[in-house]
């Protein structure tokens, strides 16, 4: 048995095996002990779970409470990137990703109707239009341009704004506050300031919608007298943040990964019907949302280990998605692979509510981008691309790209 993994400066986030691959320590832990004891920087002991089967099992087991899921809020009020408490954190109204049943069930149920496959299909045309308009605007610019700024961030931001009824004109402030909130380099005060500014803004917005509802999801929710303004604000915060930060990073990092795999990119351009499968594979391969947290409400056996009641457990979706016991040659990007079954949207009762929306955005986004920019390439050496190792959602800070101007219509 290997020893307890002591991780002195936060979870392993440095990409020492390459921009798309898990940090080496994660791979080593998965190979030697997929359920590993872990000592956090403050000295308290917990666990890190890295194997596919054990991660899946854990996420399906509600004895592992999500009230420790500091993925969103807790980071901002505790040590960045690290849980410090050994008991469930207080609930934040509306933030159901960090709640357990029955509170989680009550709130999630109010949203499932708005995110069904059928409802998302109805939005598809609108999403394709948004992606195409953004590509029109990008084509008018003289390259090089930053793909994050001109394409990857605007598309999901426009989509989630339209869905929620958040004015897109306010994007600069909500994008900056979301980014600051997720930035593990910032001080606690700076993160709290970003969180407070964003929730104050959203609190005023949902209050206005309750008084004068429009035709959007937040207005529909505001009409439900069972929900308090604080709950509406928490829901709006969760949806706005999850709605733009995640997909934006998939579009940008996904483009980077495809540009670094030119044969697969060429194949995808020649056969766009391969795109849905390629999107699943990119989700698996990149696993941009990693390191979720759970809290053991009792002693629980997992993968031959006993996780003691009160332990904080870190769940690595990235390590799980690269487990050779589940996926052959897991570190190879293979757009022909049957990647469904990956854990990039989580598993169990908290499985991503926006996954169909994200899939449609990615299909529309990649399809348009590849078609419209057949000569797209990086405008700097790949090893100079700035990676988001300091952010709760992985990706690239910017992706300078260029193309042969005559070819982009
Ligand atoms: C939950 C990933 C896009 C809304 C989750 C979880 C993951 C995830 C891993 C599970 C968290 C946990 O178990 O603690 C992703 C990825 C996305 C994406 C990789 C993009 C590629 C979106 C979008 C929305 C969204 C576009 C839209 C609004 C949510 C919500 C939850 C969630 C509300 C909480 C669900 C619950 O607790 O029941 N997401 N997500 N996500 N996601 Fe996403």
Automatic annotation (TrEMBL):
Output the CDD domains linked to this UniProt entry. Answer: CYP105-like
The record's listing under Pfam families reads: p450
Residues of the region (Disordered) are: 1-23
SUPFAM superfamilies (UniProt xref)? Cytochrome P450 (SSF48264)
GO MF assignments: heme binding; iron ion binding; monooxygenase activity; oxidoreductase activity, acting on paired donors, with incorporation or reduction of molecular oxygen
Q: Which UniProt keywords apply?
A: Heme, Iron, Metal-binding, Monooxygenase, Oxidoreductase
InterPro entries documented for this protein? Cyt_P450, Cyt_P450_B, Cyt_P450_CS, Cyt_P450_sf
- Say which family it is in: Belongs to the cytochrome P450 family.
UniProt protein name: Cytochrome P450
Q: Which species does the entry assign this protein to?
A: Streptomyces tubercidicus
Organism ancestry: Bacteria, Bacillati, Actinomycetota, Actinomycetes, Kitasatosporales
């Amino acid at each position: 048995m290997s020893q307890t993994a002591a991780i002195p400066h936060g979870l392993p986030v440095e990409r020492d095996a390459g921009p798309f691959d898990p940090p080496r320590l994660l791979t080593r832990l998965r190979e030697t002990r997929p359920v590993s004891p872990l000592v956090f920087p403050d000295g308290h002991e917990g666990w890190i779970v890295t194997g596919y089967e054990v991660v899946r099992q854990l996420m399906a087991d509600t004895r592992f409470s999500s009230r420790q899921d500091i993925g969103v809020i807790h980071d901002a009020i505790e040590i960045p990137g690290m849980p410090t408490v050994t008991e469930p954190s207080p609930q934040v109204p509306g933030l159901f990703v960090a709640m357990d049943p029955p509170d989680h069930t009550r709130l999630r149920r109010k949203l499932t109707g708005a995110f069904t496959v059928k409802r998302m299909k109805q939005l598809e045309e609108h999403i394709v239009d948004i992606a195409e308009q953004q590509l029109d605007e990008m084509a008018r610019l003289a390259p090089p341009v930053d793909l994050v700024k001109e394409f990857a961030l605007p598309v999901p931001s426009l989509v989630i704004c339209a869905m929620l009824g958040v004015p897109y004109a306010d994007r600069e402030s909500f994008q900056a506050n979301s980014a600051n909130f997720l930035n593990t380099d910032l001080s606690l005060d700076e993160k709290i300031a970003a969180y407070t500014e964003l929730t104050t803004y959203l609190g005023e917005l949902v209050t206005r919608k309750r008084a004068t509802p429009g035709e959007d999801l937040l207005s529909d929710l505001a009409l439900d007298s069972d929900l308090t303004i604080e709950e509406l604000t928490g829901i709006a915060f969760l949806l706005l943040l999850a709605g733009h930060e995640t997909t934006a990073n998939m579009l940008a990092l996904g483009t980077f990964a495809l540009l670094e795999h030119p044969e697969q990119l060429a194949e995808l351009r020649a056969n766009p019907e391969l795109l849905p499968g390629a999107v699943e594979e990119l989700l698996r391969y990149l696993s941009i949302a990693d390191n979720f947290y759970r809290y053991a409400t009792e002693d629980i056996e997992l993968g031959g280990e006993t996780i003691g009641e009160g332990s904080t457990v870190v769940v690595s979706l990235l390590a799980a998605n690269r487990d050779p016991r589940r996926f052959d040659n897991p570190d190879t990007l293979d757009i022909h692979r049957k990647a469904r079954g990956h854990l990039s949207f989580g598993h169990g009762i908290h499985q991503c509510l926006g996954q169909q929306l994200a899939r449609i955005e990615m299909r529309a986004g990649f399809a348009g981008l590849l078609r419209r920019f057949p000569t797209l390439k990086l405008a700097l050496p790949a090893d100079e691309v700035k990676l988001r190792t300091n952010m709760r959602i992985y990706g690239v800070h910017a992706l300078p790209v260029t193309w042969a101007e005559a070819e982009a219509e």
